[in-house]
Amino acid sequence: MAAVLSPVPAPRASSARRPVGSATRGTTHPNRLRRMDRWIADAHGAALRRSADPVAVDLGYGASPWTAVELLARLRRVRADAAVVGVEIDPGRVAAAAPYAREGLTFAHGGFEVPLGTAGRRPVLIRAANVLRQYDEDGVAAVWERLRARLAPDGLLVEGTCDEIGRRHVWVALGPEGPRTVTFAARLGSLGMPSDLAERLPKALIHRNVPGEAVHLFLRDFGRAWAGAAPYAAYGVRQRWISAVSALAADWPVVDGPRRWRQGEVTVRWEAVAPRGW
């Protein structure tokens, strides 16, 4: 099992380098990231099981440590000795989280440099949820590159945005080589139409939901497929979603199948919706 790390106090300016990044608003709620976590456990479970050091990072967990606590519980259903390090740039939040530390769960002061306390240690997962929304779009690629460089060879970076209680969520999955996929996920009972997810696009895409951009075309086609699947609403919103995604997959590179669609998800290749000039 990976070594357990002790909470790291805020470094003094005279003795340590300042963490990279800026503090987020810190708002969070229990169970907010459940959709992302379930997807991670399913999509990245094999890599977690074969990892020699199954450590994951909850980057920018916020004013309360709930998301780190929950991530550990969900990953341990896949790998019993998985460990999670919650990383926060605000030292006050690290101190507030310290009482929740236990075997396999620790908290560290830091930012995009992703401190893990042991030289050469690389996480098999970095999850950064609702972190980059405050940054400029032009800075996203550099942050992604920095975080990807910290990953283990078979590691995964998952970066995205959700609403306050986790009903709507969109995230990008990236390997060490670059972005791979984009996942759109929703609590189907609260979804009016697929375009409702547009406001939760991650920073790399949210300003590109305009005519001429691929993500705008994708959401337009998804809306048309949703309208075409209206008769399936008689059998429930889940059946309507499955029918709409099945129709969408005829023209878009959907990489998952009905088992994930039933969860209110659809995942497409990054290249299909990437911003122009990316």
UniProtKB/TrEMBL annotation:
It comes from the Bacteria. Residues 1-34 are annotated as: Disordered. InterPro entries: SAM-dependent_MTases_sf. The keyword Transferase applies. Keywords: Methyltransferase, Transferase. GO terms for biological process: methylation. One of its GO terms (molecular function) is methyltransferase activity. The keyword Metal-binding does not apply. This is Methylase.
